[in-house]
Amino acid sequence: MGRRARTFVVSGPSGVGKGTLVSLLRERVSSLGLTVSATTRDPRPGEKDGVAYYFLTDEEFDRHVEAGDFLEWAWVHGHRYGTLRQEVRRLTDAGSSVMLEIDVQGGLMVRERVPDAVLVFVEPPSMEELERRLRGRGTESEAEVERRLANARREMAQAPLYDVRIVNDDLERACSELRQVIDTYENNGGPSQDVCDQARD
Ligand code: ADP
Ligand code: 5GP
Q1: Count of alpha carbons within 13 Å of 57, Cβ hemisphere only?
Q2: Count of Cβ atoms closer than 10 Å to residue 43 Cβ
Q3: Looking at residue 92, what is its pLDDT?
Q4: Ligand nearest to the CA of 76
Q5: Which residues hold ATP (predicted)?
Q6: What's the gap in Å between 196 CA and the centre of ligand 1?
Q7: Cβ(35) to ligand 2 under 6 A?
Q8: For residue range 125-165, what is the model confidence (pLDDT) as tens digits?
Q9: pLDDT for position 54
Q10: How far is CA 72 from each of CA 36, 42, 76, 127, 132, rounded to the nearest angstrom?
Q11: pLDDT value, residue 195
């Protein structure tokens, strides 16, 4: 059976290292397309419009919702985030697998709309380490850190709904595991028992 382009969703609590992991993976798997999401939150220093996100006003976001332009969208940490259908099309038209780095509500919506999507949940080694990373990143205010930690507990409870779980302890190890998951699903249309077991350990 040949290689098959797939849709991969990566979710996990804020600060677990999704962005870091996905950008390392993309250095190694250049064919993997990453969708750029739309959001109503403000850009962080250094975030460029159209690269990190499409930064939209509430009115612009509303217009896309009304026009049915989103594959999925959700309220996350007090702001709206969504994946534009056009963005997924742009990447799948090129014949490559696509990756969506989105929250759990969005991930479950994608599973309904793209039934063969593969949902990967990234877990922290511990809640203490998650808090260290979130604070260490230094991009959020104290109130925002608290809000994200509270949401993290809720999100972690939904990890069992995902197809694959990866613990981001050592970045290199987690990246190899994610790469193996992608290879397996692209090649066989599903995991062998080995990878399934490894990914859930
Ligand atoms: P997310 O995208 O999930 O919100 P980030 O990728 O921004 O998280 O990572 C949050 C912080 O944790 C960053 O400072 C990043 O450098 C750090 N980090 C990511 N992965 C690891 C890891 N495996 N070990 C230690 N620190 C990590
Ligand atoms: P941040 O503000 O730290 O960039 O992202 C906050 C959260 O929004 C993360 O959990 C991230 O996965 C989620 N997110 C980013 N883009 C999307 C999207 O397009 N849809 C959904 N549902 N969540 C998103």
Answers
A1: 3
A2: 12
A3: 87
A4: 2
A5: 12-19
A6: 24
A7: no
A8: 999 999 999 999 988 899 999 999 999 999 999 999 999 99
A9: 98
A10: 13, 20, 12, 28, 30
A11: 41
ipTM greater than 0.95, yes or no? yes
The number of residues making up the chain comes to 201
More confidently predicted of 46 and 200: 46
Ligand 2: residue whose CA is nearest its atom 2: 41
For ligand 1, mutation pick of 137, 167, 168 (most atoms within 8 Å of CB): 137
Residue 76 CB less than 6 A away from ligand 2:
yes
What spacing in Å lies between the alpha carbon of 17 and ligand 1's midpoint? 3
d(CA 22, CA 122): 11
Summarize pLDDT for 84-124 with one digit per residue, the tens: 999 999 998 888 899 999 999 999 999 999 999 999 999 99
